[in-house]
Write a structure and sequence with these properties.
CATH class: Alpha Beta
Number of strands: 9
Helix content: 25-40%
Distance between the termini: 28 Å
Largest sheet: 5 strands, mixed
CATH architecture: 3-Layer(aba) Sandwich
Order of helices and strands: EEEHEHEHEEEEHH
Strand content: 15-25%
Strand order of the largest sheet: 5-4-3-8-9
Length: 187
C-alpha cells in the first residue's frame, strides 16, 4: 500500500530519481538550483494538453532560468514513449524524465487514472498513469509550492508561476499550506 502522507510545503520532498531522454538518471536531491527546482508531472505522450503545456514550458525555459529555476518534466511513460514525446513534440531543450514509478507518484500526492483506450489524438493511454502536478522545490529539498490535479484541464498558467516566483523572491514570501488537515482534526 502506497504512503498516503500528504506532501506539505516546508516538508522534505519525496525522493525522485528518473532516467532522462538522451541522458542519464536525474535525481531531485542532486538538482542544486539557485532558487527552485520545478518538477512538472505530465500524463504522457497520449495527452494533447500536456503537449501544449510542455511546448509552452520549453519556450519559457529562459525566463525560468533567469529566476534561478531548474525545470524537468516527468511522466510514467516508457523510454520509447518518452523518446517519441521529445521527437514529435520537438522538446529539444526541456529535460524529459520517464519511467515514474506509480508508487512514487502516490508519494508526491499525484492522482492516478486507468487507461481508457485511444485519446482524441489517436494515442493509446497506458494501463495506468499519473495525472498532472507542478511542484516548486527549494534548494534544501523542501516543498515550496504544490499543485495536483485529478484531470488534465485547467493547469496553473506558466506565466502566473513566473509572476509568483518574482513576488516570492522579491518579498521573501514563506511557503503556505504547511498545516495538514490531520493537524486540524487533532486540534
Amino acid at each position: 500500500m502506497p504512503d498516503t502522507t500528504p506532501v506539505l510545503p516546508r516538508g522534505t520532498a519525496p525522493a525522485l530519481t528518473v532516467p532522462v531522454v538522451g541522458g542519464g538518471p536525474w535525481t531531485l536531491a542532486d538538482s542544486h538550483p539557485q532558487n527552485f527546482t520545478m518538477v512538472v508531472f505530465y500524463r504522457g505522450l497520449h495527452c494533447p494538453i500536456c503537449r501544449a503545456q510542455l511546448s509552452e514550458l520549453q519556450r519559457m525555459l529562459p525566463e525560468f532560468d533567469k529566476r534561478g529555476v531548474k525545470v524537468i518534466a516527468v511522466s510514467s511513460d516508457t523510454a520509447e514513449r518518452a523518446s517519441k514525446t521529445v521527437e514529435e513534440w520537438r522538446l529539444d531543450k526541456l529535460p524529459i524524465g520517464y519511467g515514474l514509478d506509480l508508487d512514487v507518484a502516490c508519494k508526491w500526492g499525484l492522482y492516478l487514472s486507468a487507461g481508457k483506450g485511444k485519446t482524441s489524438i489517436g494515442v493509446e493511454e497506458p494501463a495506468k498513469f499519473s495525472e498532472p502536478g507542478l511542484f516548486l522545490i527549494r534548494p534544501d529539498n523542501t516543498v515550496y509550492f504544490a499543485s495536483v490535479q485529478t484531470m488534465p484541464f485547467a493547469r496553473p498558467p506558466l506565466k502566473d508561476i513566473l509572476g509568483a516566483i518574482d513576488f516570492v523572491l522579491a518579498k521573501d514570501y514563506p511557503a503556505r499550506g504547511e498545516a495538514s488537515c490531520y493537524d486540524a482534526a487533532a486540534a
